[in-house]
Write a structure and sequence with these properties.
Pfam families: PNP_UDP_1 (PF01048). With 262 residues, the protein is α/β, with parallel strands linked by helices. It has a single domain, classed as Nucleoside phosphorylase domain (Rossmann fold, 3-Layer(aba) Sandwich), CATH 3.40.50.1580. 27% of the residues lie in helices and 26% in strands. The longest helix has 26 residues. The protein binds hypoxanthine. The site of hypoxanthine (HPA) has 13 residues, from strand 7, strand 12 and strand 13.
């Protein structure tokens, strides 16, 4: 059983992994270097989305390399985190939300592995973008740990790296978004193309632009993540312990198909 973790801002999960070693995985999109080790007898690969020194901004993350690399390494289950702005009063700073759906407002990001030609033309179904079984495991683990966790949330992904305008946030509210961020798309889409069981824990770090009474800043996000980062890491590893016991079937691996070149 191999498990991947994609850590967003403020999540550096290595303290849980025994003897982590950086491993190079070559992909058609470049080399990725997850830290690989063991947790509770399972192999775990940790990949910090923004690089180990947090130097890669959201619009420059190599999403395809990350998902391809984890898939090639053998991950079947992938947990990810996403610091987010909240559009909903109930999702106050520090709250965790197990994402259930998304809206995509990114621009110019390649969000497929299938570029036509010999790779084929593929239109994946995203009726259930996130793995329903992993989502349930994360939510129940969060309840067990008595964390302020919500079982579903609709995430709107913006291109960044700037924060949104108040008008963009009002438009998103009309469309039903509950959280905003800059990284979950195309990651979730690529994970679905790769047939991974993928879940994202969004961490509310601030109320979104125009809702918050103060200007938004990355410092505010980091400040909230200082405490929330430990909670979410504990949540991920508590959830990982339950992956071995999964009996429920979901459609994440269907239809069976190999990524181009794999
Ligand atoms: N907007 C976009 N991304 C974010 C935010 C936000 O308000 N907070 C944390 N990441």
């Amino acid at each position: 059983m191999k498990i991947g973790i994609i850590g967003g801002t403020g999540v550096y999960a290595l303290e849980y992994i025994e003897n982590p070693l950086e491993v190079n995985v070559a992909t058609p999109f470049g080399i990725v270097t997850p830290s690989v080790g063991v947790y509770e007898g399972m192999e775990v690969a940790f990949l910090p989305r923004h690089g180990s020194a947090h130097s890669i901004p959201p619009h420059k993350v190599n999403y395809r390399a990350n998902i391809y690399g984890l898939t090639k390494w053998g991950a079947k289950y992938v947990f990810s985190t996403a610091a987010s702005g909240s559009l909903k009063k109930d999702f106050g700073p520090g709250h965790l939300v197990v994402l259930s759906d998304f809206l995509d407002f990114t621009k110019g990001r390649t969000s497929t592995f299938y570029e036509g030609g010999s790779d084929g033309v593929v239109h994946i179904d995203v009726t259930e973008p996130y793995c329903p079984v992993l989502r349930k495991i994360v939510y129940l683990s969060g309840m067990e740990l008595k964390l302020p966790i919500h079982s579903s949330g609709i995430y709107a992904c913006f291109e960044g790296p700037r924060f949104e305008t108040p008008a963009e946030i009002r438009a998103c509210q009309v469309l039903g978004a509950e959280l905003v961020g800059m990284t979950n798309v195309p990651e979730v889409v690529l994970a679905r193309e790769a047939g991974l069981h993928y879940t994202t824990i969004a961490i509310s770090t601030n109320y979104a632009a125009g809702i918050s009474s103060i200007p938004l800043s990355h410092e505010e996000v980091l400040e909230v993540m200082k405490t929330a980062g430990d909670a979410v890491t504990n949540l991920i590893f508590t959830s990982i312990k339950k992956v071995k016991m999964i009996k429920e079937i979901c459609g994440c691996e269907e239809p069976k198909r190999k990524l181009p070149g794999l």
